[in-house]
Amino acid sequence: MIEQSQQSAIETTTVSMTASAADKVRELLSQENDPSLGLRIFVAGGGCSGLQYGMTLDEEQEGDTSVQMEGFKVLVDEMSYGYISGSEVDYVDSLMGAGFTVNNPNAVSSCGCGHSFKTADDGGQGQARSCGCGH
């Protein structure tokens, strides 16, 4: 018998976020005690697959897409929007460590750690490579 765990996702047009990820973001924001902050999700060059995800607590900037969800704002800059639109953010706490991961439907290959990826626009052929982060 295979046991399956289903986790409800908080849906937005930009990204969705699992309940555990939303809980963790609310916890981090409450520690900062600054109502102007939201969760910024961005994409930058680098990582073992060509692009990598980043997240930080930040204020809204001009040009950002801002989505209100579960009591906090999710902020995405213009460049990152096309790369992560439709993605799901999760927070995983396991024996291997704890952290945010991104399930991205735009990625043709991704790193085993869930922190970097390659899209078809990056010249990827949809072929996975070994992960340079040790996973």
Which secondary-structure class do the elements indicate? alpha+beta
- Rounded average pLDDT: 78
* CATH class value: Mainly Beta
Classified in CATH, the superfamily is HesB-like domain
Q: Termini distance?
A: 28 Å
Strand content of the residues, in percent?
Answer: 35-45%
Shape: globular
Radius of gyration: 15 Å
Q: Percent range for helical residues?
A: 10-25%
CATH architecture: Sandwich
For the largest beta sheet, what order do the strands appear in spatially?
Answer: 5-6-3-4-10-9
The main β sheet shows up as:
6 strands, mixed
Stretches where pLDDT is under 50 for at least 5 consecutive residues are: 1-12, 123-135
Order of helices and strands: EEHEEEEHEEEE
> What's the number of helices?
2
Within the CATH hierarchy, at the fold level, what is the topology?
Hypothetical Protein Aq_1857, Chain: A
Structurally, the number of domains stands at 1
Write down how many β-strands occur, each being a DSSP E stretch of 2 or more residues: 10
